[in-house]
Amino acid sequence: MISRPPPSPPPDLLFDAAALDDGQLVTLAHGDTRALVAPHVGGSIAAFYEAAGEAPSFHWLRPATRAAIDARDPLGMASFPLMPYCNRIRDGRFRFEGEMIDLPSGSGALRHALHGHAWRRPWTVEAQTADTLTLHFLHEPHDTQGSRGSGPRTGTGWPFRYEARQHLTLDARGLTVRLWARNLATWPMPFGLGHHPYYPRTAGTRIAARVRAMWEIDAEVLPVSLNAHPAVDALQDGLVVDDFDLDNNFSGWRREALIEWPHEGQRLALHASAPLDFFVLFSPRGLPYFCAEPVSNTTDWLNLRHAETVRRIDVGGTVLAPGETLEAQLAWLPERS
What we know:
Elements lengths: L10 H4 L11 E5 L2 E6 L5 E7 L7 E2 L6 H6 L7 E4 L5 E2 L3 E4 L2 E4 L10 E2 L9 E5 L3 E8 L13 E2 L7 E9 L4 E9 L5 E3 L2 E7 L5 E4 L3 E5 L5 E5 L2 H8 L1 E2 L6 E5 L4 E6 L4 E7 L5 E5 L6 E7 L5 H4 L7 H4 L2 E3 L4 E10 L3
Parallel strand pairs: 8-12
Antiparallel strand pairs: 1-2, 2-3, 3-4, 5-16, 6-9, 7-8, 10-11, 11-13, 13-14, 14-27, 15-26, 16-25, 17-20, 17-22, 18-19, 18-21, 21-24, 22-23, 23-27, 24-25
Pfam families: Aldose_epim
Protein name: Aldose 1-epimerase
GO molecular function: carbohydrate binding; isomerase activity
């Protein structure tokens, strides 16, 4: 779908240094590069930028606003973690090992549970140096008995106990995030993870990535069929973000992407490890940002995996045995001229 390029966002929207002067943010520094982290706002990254001397800062990710920091709103941050699943679960419900899991949800479009819960809760600083940070998160389900076979858990939330960590490293190459999770329940737990970054969007911004197919969506942004699409070919050559109005999952991602801001002379490589084999591109027209998300499961994977026409390789996600761990890594690497 072709759309008019949005106007370039004003500098004070992208580069509001005063908004980031907040004592609750943890600063990682390496040379002229900075990464600011907000453990209390869902373990989010608040900013990732470079400032050389008196030259203007360039933000590789859309920095957090003052309003987002004050409101502790992860949706206004630079990037936030996705656990224990990525994106939506249809109607906030899924069946797992014979039991119906019913997650808290709202009404209308919000009845579809969104992005798990780790992004909505504070994380704890476990370790810190000048250029590294380890955050810890522990989920204790409301069902403290942890019993099985008791029927649907209506609105009780994620019934599986688990812990997670994010280990962030800022070095000469860029910013690396290692995600880790362990099942602390006494029975198997379905699990997915990823990160939800926002990128500045100026006229001509483009992204290149190799993917196999795109999930078409219904009116409520839930996947219904996996098909070829012009965006698949465009991504291989370098998709101009303004040319496509998308909120779609891509299957068969090669775990690499390159974002370019040609007018600013900037390039950012995104690299990921397995199981981050899926890719979400969110580029609605008229906004001064877009999202390119490395994730381990497609939207609604916990329901799609039961469909006879869908292959396991197309939906992702995993099931962790008691005590089993899952790990993934992603990195944003500026390609400096």
